Amino acid sequence: MKYDYGLTLEELEKRTSKEYLLEKPLLDEDSKEYNELKDGDKLALAYLTKAARIIEKINMQLDSHHNLPFKKFLEEEIKKKNRKAELTKILFDAQKGIFALDCETNLVKLAKNLEKRQGRGFYPDDLSKEEFHQILIKMIKDGKIPIVRKILNQRTVVERRGKELVGIDYVDKFQSDFKEIVKLLLKASCVSTNIQFNEYLRLQSQAFLVADEMLDAYADKKWATLQNTPLEFTVTRENYSDEFTETVFENEELSKLLKENNINVISKDYLGARVGIVNKEGTEYILKVKEYLPLMAENMPYCDKYEQTISKDSDTLQTMVDADLVELAGDVGSFRAGITLAENLPNNDKLSLTIGGGRRNVYHRQIRFNTSEDAKQKIQERLDNILDKRFHKYYDDKMDHLFTIGHENGHSLGPKEGLEALGKYKSIIEENKADMVSLSMLDVLTEAGLYTQEEKEKIIVTYAVDNMLKSKPEITQAHRVRSVMQNYYFIKDGAIKISPDGFLTVDIEKMTKTARKMLAEIIEVQMSKDFPKGEKYVLDNFIWTDEMEIISQKLKKISKRLNGKTTHKLADKLLEDLKKIKD
């Protein structure tokens, strides 16, 4: 297929310039973290990095049917010294695909003659939402329940079969790639120095050979126990980006049939891979919060009315590590408006949580660090333009890490079952919940001794400032929609005020109380398992106010950044070195 460039040369040069494209360097080849590893772990890192790149190749196909052909097209054009191709490839590698929203909610479309499809690479390009619903209705009425279950499973790619659809497990769909990944994981398990980590790699290998959800559960369960390992390797499976599957709840007839036939609907998983080195000092700091998790669980709204992962009456099945990053590949590494600071996995829809497995939090050191003089200057400029001077003393960008720790642990609290019924709003509501857990627990955790009063105040004000956005997001951007909802809620409740000229003031004591009130409402929505209630809650609070617009215009003047990219010198060197090794 012939592709046309989606951006002009002038636009490409702008968007790839330092001013507009933020760079996040991962570990360098001469980093002490890498040099201090044992030789076996260094070699294991190389195998794991190569496996991560293959996972990225698979995820690109899940993201769009056109990603790999377009990538090949760019590479051929680059050989011809095509400047447009060179610059387009920079953006393609950064956002890991043809389509992405930037941080001002503009759709970046790198191929002019293609349209972003709601079904992405999981569904046929020519399948409309209406046809999708009608096919499923007919198939259910024809008694083809097992096939429909597979179509609506998070692990499958959907294809046409005559007038019907079928779901193919991604392990079967991309069998040759997964077999290559298995070889690499097994090689890593033979040279890595940690027995528990090697056992996990072998379990994950089995899960990639056979399309069996239980094998994934065994691997996830083992992964969630890893605490004292030198290396970090994660296969990330999250379904926040699927905009198509859960539209089934919008069709009343179909929704009723699904419920009557006990067919679970789970959005499709995008795949990613994280490769890193566990940072002991950073991990020790993060682990301080673990002993407080049962206290947080006990203080959750309506905690006696649902089961949650953390309980005061049982062991806390949660591990936590701070990781120096070698590679972020696939979904977890895509820089689309932003990039994740940390993850709490497995998510609620994963089978491992039903067989006694726990969760694991991994924090991304290189993503959160921003210590350059230019970065410090930009922060001060932002404060001078949007925060009342009386509150400058409370802003501390290091507090964002403490807030993130609270957020990630918040995912382990609250209802853990039935959330899929909230459809396309479930991720927005879940992310909103995690934020409100982090804020609302500050009083409890300060009284318990985890935080000082000064840290609590700084976390609150830093959150309020950093929660302001440069533009109104689209409803599909769960992490950003929740920010708008929170800002609207806090403004409405008087915990945050924005003056007519766009300066923010914060009622520090009121913030935690307002967060507690919002958290209780969120938990009620999650317990209801009711799509209309979830939709109403989101839309009632997803309101972009005039005050937010004033601040957004200021933020755009302060920072021209539209997107970002990761760079990975160590990962690239490891792959080059691996080519020299004969099997």
Low-confidence stretches: none
Strand content: 5-15%
Mean pLDDT: 95
Helical fraction:
40-55%
Number of strands: 13
The count of helical stretches stands at 25
Basic shape: globular
**In what order do the strands lie side by side in the largest sheet?**
6-7-8-10-9
Termini separation (Å)?
Answer: 37 Å
Work out the radius of gyration.
23 Å
Described by strand count, sense and barrel closure, the largest sheet is: 5 strands, mixed
- Specify the structural class: alpha+beta
What key attributes describe this structure?
583 residues; alpha+beta; five-stranded mixed sheet; two-stranded parallel sheet; 25 helices; 13 strands; globular
Plain-language structure description:
By secondary structure, the protein is α+β, with helices and mostly antiparallel strands. The protein has 25 helices and 13 strands. The strands form five sheets. The protein has a five-stranded mixed sheet. β4 and β5 (164-169) form a beta hairpin. α17 packs across α20. The chain is globular. The mean pLDDT is 95.
Topology:
Layout: H1 9-15, E1 21-25, H2 32-35, H3 39-63, H4 67-79, H5 83-95, E2 99-101, E3 107-109, H6 129-141, H7 145-151, E4 156-161, E5 164-169, H8 170-173, H9 175-191, H10 195-209, H11 213-223, E6 231-238, H12 252-260, E7 270-278, H13 280-287, H14 293-298, E8 318-330, E9 342-345, E10 359-364, H15 365-368, H16 373-386, H17 399-410, H18 426-440, H19 442-448, H20 453-466, H21 478-493, E11 496-498, E12 504-506, H22 508-528, H23 531-541, H24 546-558, E13 563-567, H25 569-579
Parallel strand pairs: 1-13, 8-10
Antiparallel strand pairs: 2-3, 4-5, 6-7, 7-8, 9-10, 11-12
